[in-house]
Amino acid sequence: xxxxxxxxxxxxxxxxxxxxxxxxxxxxxxxxxxxxxxxxxxxxxxxxxxxxxxxxxxxxxxxxxxxxxxxxxxxxxxxxxxxxxxxxxxxxxxxxxxxxxxxxxxxxxxxxxxxxxxxxxxxxxxxxxxxxxxxxxxxxxxxxxxxxxxxxxxxxxxxxxxxxxxxxxxxxxxxxxxxxxxxxxxxxxxxxxxxxxxxxxxxxxxxxxxxxxxxxxxxxxxxxxxxxxxxxxxxxxxxxxxxxxxxxxxxxxxxxxxxxxxxxxxxxxxxxxxxxxxxxxxxxxxxxxxxxxxxxxxxxxxxxxxxxxxxxxxxxxxxxxxxxxxxxxxxxxxxxxxxxxxxxxxxxxxxxxxxxxxxxx
Length: 361
What we know:
The protein is an alpha/beta fold. The chain contains 12 helices and 20 strands. It has helices at 8-12, 52-60, 110-113, 155-159, 161-173, 189-200, 213-221, 237-248, 262-271, 292-297, 312-321, 338-350; strands at 16-22, 25-30, 40-49, 62-63, 66-67, 72-73, 77-85, 97-100, 103-104, 124-125, 138-142, 146-148, 181-185, 205-210, 226-229, 252-257, 272-280, 301-304, 330-334, 356-360. The strands form 5 sheets. Strands 3, 7, 8, 11, 12, 19 and 20 form a 7-stranded mixed β-sheet that branches. It has a 6-stranded parallel β-sheet with strand order 15-14-13-16-17-18, sandwiched between helices. Strands 2-1-6 form a 3-stranded antiparallel β-sheet, covered by helices on one side. β17, α10 and β18 (301-304) form a beta-alpha-beta unit. α5 (161-173) packs across α6 and α5 (161-173) crosses α11. The relative contact order is 0.14.
């Protein structure tokens, strides 16, 4: 028997998590963990960030083709401390601090075998229905998706490896290097990590666009070479492209659309030099009307990204070495009570001066 006359099994059932139980409704409820497999670890969560997708699920119970049909544990940007390891785990021990990559692919399909496991059709990804997420006291996860953090990298920074991975993957897809001028459309969390990643990859000139003065101010503080305030009116694109080219010193070699709207994509296609690339990172609109033919005759390549692959070691190294500082992105912190969970999601959804909202468990 455990404390207070409870059996060991009953104690384990006291693992609590933040459940999305309905539209705009989160509840902290018990979360029973699956049994620990030989290649798994049990991790005590210590830092979990809120992503825009978490907020979208809360507000609409869906994101693209993913629909929340039954209660689901939320959260996927996370880091914690190993509590228990499976019988075949050799590289981790209890007490190790780790960042978790949230997607478990099948490793059997052709895409996985090619190394493009982020496109696996059988992907099981934290807090993408019907898979439960990681805003919980403890989770069970494959050990090979848990990456040990160096002593000078905090657990919060470990959790930031997830959004940073999106920026790193985008920069790899677009072949960013020391000769690449970069335009980033959207200065939200993903736009900002894309900027930080592009700088770490060596981009000499990076300009950000946004409709919000506060976000542009943050981008400038984080090292943007130029910032431009734009409107939401698609009629303004030609004039704004002129301004962009003036600030960039010509068309951008690579433009990252981190919003994914008709206007941002139209702007990116026109502001990118002939022979350049537009990388669509944000997924604001499922369907867009954009001037594709004029971009095609200038041989502007359009590339997409979906999540990331093999990015955690590089993200950790960028943070460890000081090449990237993600700490200024964390603007709000909350504990793990019912009231604080609700407040944290409201803060993230409101936007304003909130960039990354982080739970400390």
